Amino acid sequence: MTANSEINRYHVRAGEDHSGTRLDSFLAQAVSGLSRSRLKKLITDGHVTCGENPVKDPAFKVKSSQEFHIIVPEPEEATPRPQDIPLHVVYEDDQLIVINKPPGLVVHPAPGNPDRTLVNALLAHCGDSLSGIGGVKRPGIVHRLDKDTSGLMVAAKTDIAHAALAKQFANHSMERAYLAVVRGVPNPSQGEISSNIGRNPKNRKKMAVLPRGGKSAITRYRLIRTLGKSDPPVASLVECRLATGRTHQIRVHMTNLGHPLVGDQLYGRAWRPAGVSGDAAAAIAAFKRQALHATMIGFKHPTSTKNLKFEQKIPLDMNELIFYLDNI
Q1: 264-294 b/e with 16+ CB inside 10 Å = b?
Q2: Residue 61 has what DSSP assignment?
Q3: Is residue 17 flagged as an active site residue?
Q4: By the number of CB atoms within 10 A of the CB, which of 3, 150, 174, 244 ranks highest?
């Protein structure tokens, strides 16, 4: 197998040992920098030729000595527009970027948030270093954080990085840890919550633990420390690690356990510990987001295969909340 490439153009020749191999599989082995899914789309779109004839079937069986030409179109400009929004960049190279997302920043444009999102910010920050995900010049969002959850996220800058990171996310080898401030004290102090999560049949904006249907969700939690001087303590700082990545998973699981996250406007009602007044009561009432922070993320680099791990401390607003709860 030989391969020669110029900018956006590849020439590949099959060897004897590739005879009978699917075209998309063969090209994925021969061409670095393009994922199999991207190559499959290039094939079906007519951008792969054998001789002068387009080969539009990804399952086409390769024969020895056949030569294939691949022309990769310039990436289309992303529909969301780049916007200069400050980002806390923790790590960046030519394949990926790790950011510490602040609370209040939506990840993807949506009808309620058409712009001023993380995607808009990444488009502006990364610029021409985005080589195109699926033919579109955009960052590859592998996993999401809720608007009001802070902490670490990784995004891909290339098609091959997106495919590799998405695979790690899907097979649960991407390591993620969160810190949450919850009401009361979980008992036992550590454990595993396993259930199916799906849309709440009574409120489509919420997720819920379902007796049937939904998707399997596993959260492992452990008590870091209790908060407050009262007996029993009013709240706790808990670490949660995800074995799956369902929408609102930690928020739903901790609520179902009887310990909703402090400040959660969707899953927890207004809350003020008994006998609390003054500055402490005001601080708790003013905390209007779920007290949840993605404190650690670990994964294998998509091209170097080096194990990477990043950590970020709790942000200021959660630290102030913990301070007041600790002194009740």
Answers
A1: bebbbeebebeebeeebeebbeebebbbbbb
A2: B
A3: no
A4: 150
E strand map for 173-321? 175-183, 190-200, 203-210, 215-227, 235-242, 292-300, 307-311
Q: Which residue has the tokens 């993605």?
A: 294
Partners of 10 in the beta sheet? 5, 70
How large is the average pLDDT for residues 90-111? 94
pTM of the model: 0.78
Assigned token pair, 200: 């709440």
- Sequence-distant (6+) residues with CB within 8 A of 327 are 228, 229, 280
Of the candidates 201, 214, 195, 313, the one whose C-alpha atom is nearest the C-alpha of residue 255 is 195
pLDDT of residue 6: 46
Beta-carbon neighbour count of residue 327 at 10 Å?
11
Cβ atoms < 10 Å from Cβ of 313: 12
pLDDT in tens, 286-321: 999 999 999 999 999 999 999 999 999 999 999 999
For residues 139, 97, 315, 192, the Cα torsion angle rounded to the nearest 10 degrees is: 80
Domains of the chain, CATH where assigned: 2-71 (3.10.290.10), 76-170 (3.30.2350.10), 175-296+307-326 (3.30.2350.10)
Among 146, 159, 264, 317, the active-site one is 146
Task: Give the dihedral sign, CA 243/35/82/89.
Answer: positive
User: In the predicted model, is pLDDT for residue 146 greater than 50?
Assistant: yes
Question: Which of residues 205 and 183 earns the better pLDDT score?
Answer: 183
Question: In angstroms, rounded to a whole number, what is the distance separating the alpha carbons of residues 323 and 328?
Answer: 9
What is the β-pairing status of strands 150-156 and 96-101?
antiparallel
pLDDT at position 325 over 60 = yes
